[in-house]
Amino acid sequence: MKKLVGQVTLEEKNTIQALFERRNGLNELAKILTADNAELYEKLVKDLGKTSTKFQKWWDDMAAKYNWESCQGGNWEINFDTCEIFLVCNNSCNCNK
After folding, report:
1. What pTM does this model have?
2. Which helix (DSSP H) or strand (DSSP E) does residue 57 occupy?
């Protein structure tokens, strides 16, 4: 199930989109980088950790700010074109259907 639960500002959308793109880029880099270059590998791991933390903090902050509906086992996703936020529930969620 996918349900519209809110919308964010353009500035807020730009923040999460930049973090999303950075995290995806770092994940792709992690696939090709080996631990042979320990210094670069450590930088990648640290950057990926920081970016993932910022990414999750954005979702936590926006959920608190806008009081989005949530459900156990569900997650939110954003439509970058419209700034709309959707709650995505799997079949095991106990949310209102």
Report:
1. 0.88
2. helix 38-66
- If you average pLDDT over residues 34-48, what whole number do you get? 88
Is 60 exceeded by the pLDDT of residue 97? Answer: no
The Cα diameter of the chain in Å comes to 50
Torsion (CA) 20, 25, 48, 79 in degrees, nearest 10: 10
Give me the residue spans of the domains in the chain.
Answer: 9-70
The pair of structure tokens assigned to 6 is 């809110």
Band (pLDDT 50/70/90 cuts) for residue 9 is very high
- HSE at residue 88, side-chain half, CA atoms within 13 A, is 7
> CA-CA distance, 19 to 13, in Å (whole number)?
10
